[in-house]
Amino acid sequence: MKSRSQDQSLSDSRELDRSYDPLTGNISDDDHLSTVRYQPQRLDHLVHQTNFSKKELQVLYRGFKNECPSGVVDEETFKSIYSKFFPQGDSSMYAHFLFEAFDTHNNGSVSFEDFVVSLSIILRGSITDKLNWAFNLYDLNKDGCITREEMTNIMDSIYDMMGKYTNPCIRDNAPKEHVDNFFQKMDKNNDGVVTIEEFLDTCQKDESIMQSMHMFDSVI
Fold first, then answer.
1. Is the pLDDT of residue 69 over 50?
2. For all residues of the chain together, what is the average pLDDT?
3. Cα–Cα distance for residue pair 24/55, rounded to 1 Å
4. Which long-range contacts (CB under 8 A, 24 or more apart) does 201-204 make?
5. What is the chain's Cα-based Rg?
6. What DSSP string runs through the chain?
7. What CATH code would you report for 54-124?
8. pLDDT, tens only, 8-33
9. Pick among 1.10.3720.10, 3.40.50.2300, 3.40.50.720, 1.10.238.10: CATH of 126-219
10. Which of 14, 23, 42, 56 gives a 20 to 30 Å CA spacing to 8?
11. Can you tell me the distance from the alpha carbon of 217 to that of 206, in angstroms, rounded to the nearest whole number?
């Protein structure tokens, strides 16, 4: 019978020579190794970082590797994958904004860790966590406030993604009306920007705003 230290040594050696997948527990063949360039953190670490179980993480990882064999996804690949969910419209600009929100290290790529940490917040985070993530998505230049221009860009990208031939038909001025309503409710001091404090306070107190945010949950 092998000792625990022997088992750990075997696992460590597999990770060092990149023949061991720490999430699936599989030993990869040489052909596959030539493709994979990035290995994620160990499963136990990701369980602590997210609200997903080990089983759920393994399922998510297999799907991620199927789409991104290299272990990371760049923006163009991300856009291509995302466009499959919205064939009726142009999702490229919203996918660009979404990619930047997932790319937490600002290195032009999204790793599996980046992906599942954000997905965990979106699907299973607290209300505050979800609102903070949404604010970061809308704050395009990451300066700590949302401008009217930023919110207009977000709304335009969402309506472009939904397509022009929806039923009922979307009015041309719908994005502007949405932005006007957003600032009327959230810009408490009328200074032309929405801060994180204004955003959190308004959303948590206004049920209609919470519902309007959930309206776009399916685009993520």
1. yes
2. 80
3. 9
4. 203/131, 204/127, 204/128, 204/131
5. 21
6. ---HHHHHHHHHHHHHTT-B-TTT-PBPPHHHHTT----PPPHHHHHHHSS--HHHHHHHHHHHHHH-TTSEEEHHHHHHHHHTT-TTS--HHHHHHHHHHH-TT-SSEEEHHHHHHHHHHHHHS-HHHHHHHHHHHH-TT-SSEEEHHHHHHHHHHHHHHH-TT-SSPPPTTHHHHHHHHHHHHH-TT-SSEEEHHHHHHHHHH-HHHHHHHHTTGGG-
7. 1.10.238.10
8. 434 433 432 344 455 555 544 444 43
9. 1.10.238.10
10. 56
11. 17
Structure tokens at 197: 């404090």
Q: Which residues pair with 125 in a beta bridge?
A: none
Cα distance from N-terminal residue to C-terminal residue, the chain: 48
Give residue 154's pLDDT.
96
Instruction: Show me where the domains of the chain are located.
Output: 54-124, 126-219
Confidence at 61, pLDDT banded by 50, 70, 90:
very high
Q: pTM for the whole thing?
A: 0.74
pLDDT at 44: 86
Cα–Cα distance measured from residue 33 to residue 10, given in angstroms and rounded to the nearest whole number: 18
